[in-house]
Design a protein that fits this description.
The chain is α+β, with helices and mostly antiparallel strands and 236 residues long. It is 57% helix and 14% strand. It is built from five helices and five strands; from the N terminus they run H-E-E-H-H-E-H-E-H-E. The chain has helices spanning 2-86, 109-112, 122-142, 167-184, 209-215; strands at 95-99, 102-108, 145-151, 192-198, 217-223. It starts with a helix and ends in a 13-residue tail after the last strand.
């Protein structure tokens, strides 16, 4: 009898040990499965991030390519305009350059006005006639907005000697005179704006007569059309 009980106890012990082993094995399998699922989730997240970065890179490349195309078109457009303008002037009357992405046409002050005057001189009328011929063709084909800027040197205006009280007023009156004359020659008023800058933006030193002469000038600035400018960032 005791032997039978002992055998039964051994069987029970073996059964318990077997169950424990099976349980441990199941736990190991469960942990292994959980680890696999975690690794799979990490791999999916990494793939999603990589895909997102790739799409962002492709988007930036498309934007850069679009900007390069716009810049090339703008440069070609300005080159065409510059050619039309140069064909209308004799050498030395006109200076053309790109400044900060805009085309600037510069006429020296002594071509357009006598010293200290706001009335356009006969030589200035001839120069503006040539300018108007080119600008009319450009305005019809391109609808460019143009700004007429008047500039002076820094020589102070003597009080009571002129019909203007300061260099700002002198530059404004001169730019208005050029504006009115261009319109009288057929340049559309809707594309012309004016501004008097005075002595605030010199291109040369005011310490010499030559420098002051360069600073006394009229600039006609050709602005790009708004659709050729880059898009503004959207608010988030």
């Amino acid at each position: 009898m005791r032997m039978m009980i002992s055998r039964c106890a051994q069987c029970i012990a073996f059964a318990i040990a077997a169950l424990v082993l099976v349980g441990c094995s199941n736990q190991r399998h469960a942990r292994s499965l959980a680890d696999c699922r975690g690794e799979l989730s990490n791999a999916r997240n990494a793939l999603t991030e990589a895909t997102s970065r790739e799409r962002e890179a492709q988007s930036r490349e498309r934007e850069a390519q679009s900007a390069r195309i716009q810049a090339q078109e703008l440069a070609s457009n300005f080159q065409s305009i510059a050619t039309k303008l140069r064909e209308s002037f004799t050498a030395g009357e006109l200076e053309l350059e790109l400044q900060h992405g805009v085309l600037v046409m510069t006429l020296e002050d002594d071509i357009l006005f006598d010293f200290g005057e706001t009335k356009i001189s006969p030589r200035g009328e001839d120069a503006l006639y040539a300018a108007a011929s080119a600008l009319k063709n450009i305005s019809i084909s391109e609808e460019k907005m143009m700004l007429v800027f008047g500039h002076t040197d820094n020589t102070p205006v003597k009080a009571g000697t002129r019909e203007y009280a300061s260099n700002i007023e002198l530059s404004a009156k001169r730019s208005l005179a050029v504006h009115s004359h261009l319109i009288s020659l057929g340049v559309p008023a809707r594309i012309l704006g004016v501004a008097g800058i005075g002595a605030m933006r010199p291109t040369a030193s005011n310490e010499t007569a030559s420098g002051r002469s360069q600073n006394r000038r009229i600039e006609i600035i050709m602005l790009p059309t708004i659709d050729s400018l880059p898009d503004l960032p959207t608010a988030e």
